[in-house]
């Protein structure tokens, strides 16, 4: 409501005064004042509607802001869940990769990982023109452990021997389980003299476990073959195997070195 001003009071008093009833300007003043009041009323209504509109717009803005904040919170929650899900998937993938590359019993590299490493290393060494050495190790009289103490004890001995061998090689050598009670050690950029030193460390570490198999302390035999750039992998593995067989024949708990250069196996497996 508009306030009544002193001018309003004055005009209203003039219009009410009987002495001006016949004044020629009275009618015009009355009309003008009436017009003024109705314009004022109109302005008040427009102002009121505008206030209402602004209030509604403010409310709408606030509810939009509120909805935006709620959506943002939901999105943040979804992003957190997605991050956690991705981390779980990453861990699962790692675990899967780890399981597919490692032997479940000993934790060493399995045959698949050994073959991958062999291919990678032989290609790298071919480019660099450098040798590597492969060592096949086989536990002696292992069957007697199983026969005397049971398969579980045999498994435990395999784990101990695997640990002893892996800790006897350098960190860039790869010691893996080739199968059964047989192990393969890949020694990149390694010539025969260094490889034989590592084999001797392994042989001693196994003997030092003092695991008894029947009448024997458990030992291992080793076959060593140098892989020169250009050699076929399958041929080198085969030479190491032949040398291992020779070590067994010559009394076990020893190492034999394959003669250089002979390529007995088919290169098709490379
Ligand atoms: N406990 C256990 N035994 C295994 C495993 N893999 C292979 N073997 C056993 O290892 C034994 C290997 O026996 P053989 O091949 O006769 O060789 P060995 O008794 O070690 O004799 P030499 O190699 O000639 O010195 C077998 O009895 C297999 O059952 C395994 O994962 N766990």
Automatic annotation (TrEMBL):
- Coiled-coil spans are 58-102
A single MF term (Gene Ontology): diguanylate cyclase activity
- GO biological process annotations for this chain's record? cell adhesion involved in single-species biofilm formation; negative regulation of bacterial-type flagellum-dependent cell motility
For whether the record's keyword set contains Coiled coil, the answer is: yes
Q: Which CDD domains match?
A: GGDEF
Question: Which sequence ranges are marked TM in the entry?
Answer: none
Checking SUPFAM superfamilies in the record gives: Nucleotide cyclase
* GO CC aspect terms: plasma membrane
Q: Which Pfam families match?
A: GGDEF (PF00990)
> What reaction gets catalysed by this protein?
2 GTP = 3',3'-c-di-GMP + 2 diphosphate
Q: Which UniProt keywords apply?
A: Coiled coil
Domain GGDEF, first and last residues per copy: 130-260
Write the Enzyme Commission number(s) for this entry. 2.7.7.65
Mind telling me which InterPro entries this protein's record contains? Diguanylate_Cyclase (IPR050469), GGDEF_dom (IPR000160), Nucleotide_cyclase (IPR029787), Rev_trsase/Diguanyl_cyclase (IPR043128)
Q: PANTHER family from the xrefs?
A: DIGUANYLATE CYCLASE DGCM-RELATED (PTHR45138:SF9), REGULATORY COMPONENTS OF SENSORY TRANSDUCTION SYSTEM (PTHR45138)
Name assigned to this protein: diguanylate cyclase
